[in-house]
Design brief:
By secondary structure, this protein is an alpha/beta fold. It is built from 7 helices and 9 strands.
Length: 216
């Protein structure tokens, strides 16, 4: 007898997004914050080529695509189960302006992006994550995969290698934990990025959307 595997649907406009509890690291919350941010700060912008970094099942990327924030979305994700869900969403909705890159670093990316969004791991250690988690249905192992960036190595790789993958006016907008933002911004500064703006994420009250700009 085969084991029962279930995935859920999160519908955003005309795109039903396939996901599981295991692969939802909060993107289903943050999508609404992203849409509000674009409405307030970039109401007349339509970006050409967007990237969702640490995409998971693609809540943010599919969401902004369905709201005409961008013409094309690329999903960068390393977790096999999330990749399968991304493929399912694209195939079931016959989406022809989305690309999946199965990798754990931005160095492998081709092309230039004028918009980058994402909900990366934004706690430096598991104990901090426990105190600040907005919901706790994940196992410890899964939480560490989703939420913990030891020594900020994931962020450092991103800010180090994304420079060659962006247009001069690229908007980088990341969902980060409020308490950890100064440490993350220090890493960004060391790599030539500055924090241009940060807005409290109303969905959780414990996170911000942090807008970064490359200045070197």
């Amino acid at each position: 007898m085969k084991s029962l595997e279930l995935d859920w649907l999160y519908k955003t406009n005309d795109i039903p997004i396939h996901y599981t509890e295991e692969t939802n690291g909060g993107g289903s919350f943050f999508l609404l914050d992203y849409i509000d941010y674009f409405k307030e700060h970039y109401p007349n912008n339509k970006f050409n080529s967007a990237l969702e970094w640490c995409a998971g099942p693609g809540f943010i990327g599919f969401g902004i695509l369905s709201c005409d924030v961008c013409n094309h979305i690329t999903f960068l994700e390393t977790y096999d189960k999330a990749i399968n869900l991304l493929e399912k969403t694209i195939n079931n909705s016959s989406i022809n302006n989305a690309t999946i890159v199965h990798a754990d670093n931005v160095k492998v990316l081709d092309g230039k992006y004028d918009l980058i969004v994402g909900n990366p791991p934004h706690f430096s250690e598991y104990q901090l994550m426990q105190k600040n988690a907005y919901y706790s249905n994940h196992s410890k192992e899964n939480w560490e995969r989703i939420a913990v960036d030891n020594n900020w190595d994931i962020h450092r790789e991103f800010f180090t290698n994304i420079k060659d993958k962006i247009t001069p006016d690229c908007l980088i907008l990341l969902a980060e934990n409020t308490r950890e933002l100064p440490k993350i911004t220090k890493v960004a500064n060391e790599c030539g990025f500055e924090l241009k703006n940060s807005n409290l994420a109303k969905s959780t009250g414990m996170h911000v959307l942090a807008e970064y700009k490359y200045i070197l």
